[in-house]
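Long-time lurker, first post. I've been practising inverse folding by hand and with some scripts of my own, and I keep getting stuck on stretches where the structure tokens seem ambiguous. Below is the full token string for one chain I'm working on. Before anyone asks, I'm not after the true native sequence, just a reasonable design that respects the backbone. If someone could post their per-position residues I'd love to compare against what I wrote down in my notebook.
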């Protein structure tokens, strides 16, 4: 039995190539082509950019990206068992799919693509946050990608889009929203996967801002945010002592209430603290 693209059904592909999901690789295969098509469409127009996919596995999302109009997909796969299955997809879409065998955590993704790029991936849970953080820390900015459309554990997705005052708001929220607009698009039930993970997943779409939300040096910002959330239950006049500057003077210079807690500060306030911190370190 084949699917609309003429390729075998994904369950058949998995059986033929003996692709039992490996927990060590964070693998959970998404087999519903209607759902993978929805993910591909959430990325926006695919005809105008190269699509970078991380961890394609048996190729469910890869097939959806190609059938939804992607003219060029570069897919990074660490598991050599999946390469023969993906080669079948490549043959069905001649010249449109480039396979890269390797660990996505240790590759320079910008060197694998050319021109405008959209990253679309059902990320393995065990590397999702490090990959996202690496992309958000890209220099120079704006970065080499036009958008990121990524699957995370729902808990991580909610941290990415969290607003000040919420329990999920923290270091990842600030970095993501400082440099990008971020939206949680939809949830994916755990039973959509083989094998089903223990948690619900969510799709998040991020688009880089031309300039960060507020001026700040990224290293200074990350140091300030790390210190503030290192003791998130304390007032920032206590938690910011970890920066080894006078926290009261720092807050005054940034026009930030020193009695606030980290989760109550806006991204703009953290940027102001970062600018003040940079000035104090230079003086």
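-- Answer (accepted) --
I ran through it position by position. Result:
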């Amino acid at each position: 039995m084949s699917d609309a693209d003429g390729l075998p059904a994904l369950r058949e592909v998995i059986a033929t190539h003996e692709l039992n999901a490996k927990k060590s690789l964070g693998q959970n295969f998404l087999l519903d082509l209607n759902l993978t098509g929805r993910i591909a469409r959430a990325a926006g127009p695919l005809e105008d950019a190269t699509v970078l996919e991380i961890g394609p596995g048996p190729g469910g999302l890869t097939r959806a990206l190609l059938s939804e109009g992607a003219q060029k997909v570069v897919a990074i796969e660490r598991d050599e068992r999946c390469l023969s299955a993906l080669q079948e997809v490549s043959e069905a879409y001649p010249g449109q799919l480039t396979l890269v065998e390797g660990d996505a955590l240790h590759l320079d993704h910008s060197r694998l693509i050319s021109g405008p790029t959209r990253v679309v991936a059902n990320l393995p849970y065990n590397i999702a946050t490090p990959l996202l953080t690496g992309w958000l820390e890209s220099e120079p900015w704006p970065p080499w990608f036009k958008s990121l459309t990524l699957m995370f554990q729902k808990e991580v997705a909610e941290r990415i889009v969290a607003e000040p005052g919420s329990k999920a708001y923290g270091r990842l929220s600030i970095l993501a929203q400082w440099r990008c607009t971020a939206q949680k698009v939809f949830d994916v039930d755990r039973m959509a996967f083989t094998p089903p993970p223990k948690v619900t997943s969510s799709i998040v779409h991020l688009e880089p801002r031309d300039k960060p939300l507020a001026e700040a040096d990224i290293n200074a910002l990350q140091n300030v945010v790390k210190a503030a959330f290192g003791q998130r239950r304390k007032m920032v006049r206590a938690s910011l002592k970890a920066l080894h500057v006078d926290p009261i003077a720092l807050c005054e210079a940034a026009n930030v209430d020193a009695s606030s807690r980290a989760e109550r500060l806006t991204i703009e306030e953290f940027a102001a603290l970062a600018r003040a911190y940079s000035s104090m370190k230079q003086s």
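A couple of notes from the structure itself: Strands lie at 29-30, 50-54, 73-77, 97-101, 117-122, 147-153, 180-188, 193-194, 201-208. The radius of gyration is 21 Å. Happy to go over any region you disagree with.
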